[in-house]
């Protein structure tokens, strides 16, 4: 299956409500095929990647990025999903093979594997200035409910998040998708009530997506007789932004003792990207060079400190 998803945005004619629908089966299937994941982590990561893709599509700046970090008390440890305005999405779980028996409803226990207690951090980095960090306590660990709660508490944008991921018996992905339904500033109470009622009776989203319902089908179910239009469509894909240089910098910045030991071992150092599985190898000669660079930097810093007049040093 192609590593591709589609995000479609609908707006009511009065401009007071927007539906962002994401069909993300290709993205999640690609991730599930590349990593060794338990079934429940596949569902959790699928929901997280879908939510990140939906939220990332609202970033206006091309350089911006959005990070969802779930830190729950479940066996998956934590879940990190990152997206950007260009539609690149990536994600990983701290313990990708963590598994639990099905929950009381016979479904994959995403809330249990993430943990029902903990925190959700949402980092919006606009590519300039300080990133905006919002955070809320987890209410269920089921991802969609936690995103909905995040918007209510932290962003004051009334939002309903729905996510639906189906995993086949053999652990492969069947389907994935989701939506954000948002009330925009000035929305009348009557519209809010009407949409609330419609969402309450909406069939299970994972069933709709598994049946192959399109963005247009879901919009028709959500809005009913409220007039609306499709206002935009964009593509998303699973793509990591890791670079060798970034890992080189982080190895170089570890303690000078550790770096010295690493260089002396003559084994080189290998780093594996958690988001895409790419392996970066740094041979012993390169570690020697990094150690030399690091020592030169430390000497330069020390020399600068010594030459700074005391009054400017306070
Ligand atoms: Zn990577």
Task: Describe the structure in your own words.
By secondary structure, this protein is of the alpha+beta class. The chain has 10 helices and 12 strands. The strands form 2 sheets. A 10-stranded mixed β-sheet has the order 7-6-3-4-5-10-1-2-9-8, with helices on both faces. Strands 11-12 form a two-stranded antiparallel sheet. The structure holds zinc ion. The site of zinc ion has 6 residues, from loops.
- The structure class reads alpha+beta
- Oligomeric form of this entry? single chain
How many structural domains in the coordinates?
2
SS strand fraction: 25-35%
CATH architecture of the largest domain: 3-Layer(bab) Sandwich
Strand order of the largest sheet: 7-6-3-4-5-10-1-2-9-8
The first-to-last residue Cα distance is 61 Å
Q: What is the chain-wise order of helices and strands?
A: EEHHEEEHEEHEEHHHEHHEEH
Radius of gyration: 23 Å
The CATH topology of the largest domain:
Hsp33 domain
Q: What hetero molecules are in the model?
A: zinc ion
What structural keywords apply?
two-stranded antiparallel ribbon; alpha+beta; 12 strands; CBS domain Like; Hsp33 domain; binds zinc ion; ten-stranded mixed β-sheet; 314 residues; globular
Summary of the model, kept short:
By secondary structure, this protein is α+β, with helices and mostly antiparallel strands.
């Amino acid at each position: 299956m192609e590593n591709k998803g589609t995000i479609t945005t609908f707006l009511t004619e009065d401009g007071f409500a927007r539906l962002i629908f994401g069909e993300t089966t290709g993205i999640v299937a690609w991730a599930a095929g590349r990593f060794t994941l338990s079934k429940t982590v596949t569902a959790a990561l699928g929901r997280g990647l879908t939510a990140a893709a939906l939220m990332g599509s609202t970033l206006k700046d091309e350089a911006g990025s959005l990070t969802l970090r779930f830190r729950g008390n479940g066996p998956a440890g934590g879940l990190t999903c990152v997206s950007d305005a260009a539609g690149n999405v990536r994600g990983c779980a701290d313990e990708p093979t963590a598994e639990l028996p099905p929950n009381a409803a016979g479904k994959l226990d995403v809330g249990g594997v993430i943990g029902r207690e903990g925190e959700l951090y949402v980092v919006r980095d606009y590519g300039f200035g300080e990133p905006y960090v919002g955070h809320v306590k987890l209410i269920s660990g089921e991802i969609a409910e936690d995103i909905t709660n995040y918007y209510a508490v932290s962003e004051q944008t009334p939002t309903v998040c729905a996510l639906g991921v189906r995993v086949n018996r053999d652990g492969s992905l069947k389907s994935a998708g989701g939506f954000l339904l948002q009330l925009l500033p000035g929305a009348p109470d009557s519209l809010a009530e009407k949409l609330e009622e419609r969402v309450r009776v909406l069939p299970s989203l994972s069933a709709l997506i598994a049946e192959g319902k399109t963005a247009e089908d879901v919009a028709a179910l959500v809005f009913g007789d409220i007039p609306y239009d499709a206002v935009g469509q964009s593509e998303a894909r699973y793509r990591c932004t890791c670079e060798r240089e970034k890992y080189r910098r982080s190895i170089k910045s570890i303690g000078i003792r550790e770096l010295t030991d690493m260089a002396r071992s003559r084994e080189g150092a290998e780093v594996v990207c958690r988001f895409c599985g790419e392996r970066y190898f740094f041979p012993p000669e390169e570690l020697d060079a990094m150690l030399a660079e690091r020592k030169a930097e430390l000497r330069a810093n020390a020399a600068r400190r010594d030459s700074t007049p005391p009054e400017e040093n306070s």
